[in-house]
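Hey, can you fold this one?
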Amino acid sequence: LSRSHSNMSVSAVVVSHAHADVLDRSLPLLAAQVDEVVVVANLPGSTNELPAGTKVIENLRPQCLSANVNAGTAATSGTYVLFANPDVVVEPGCVATLASFMDAHPLCGIARPELLWPDGSWQPSRRRFPTVSGTIVRRTPLRRLYPPYERQRAHYQLDDRPASPAEADWLLGAFLLQRRTMLDEIG
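Sure. Predicted structure:
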């Protein structure tokens, strides 16, 4: 594909844990916006028919998500590497918009669009760095007594929905465009 936004290329990595039916819908939308697609098939039933040119890495045994993402990334060549969950439905122009933003902001290592739940409502996906006490509540049965979305609004940044680009301590990994030079630097 010719990238009108940039001379840069975008590679996409999608890890499928038997999500073949979900990929049937999402992958053509993603493939139309990137230069290269790698699907890491982590379990049997991870793929059906894929868009032309899609590379597939089939694991002999299941791997953890980070190992799959790393394997997929190593199999790409783009200036930018996009990680997308298999169920993400990409809006037209999304990848070009993110890549253009990163082209204009060379210190931006990771960018992501606003995420929406399937019903169209806003999905909070920016986070503050975790605290020990907050993590204990979120990762134990205490979350039933102290519901995180109610008691940890600041961590989830629920009261801050920026209308323009904003920095974040960390982001949900559902859809992240990453600068390859940053990935190479951090290993």
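The mean pLDDT is 89. Let me know if you want another pass with a different chain boundary.
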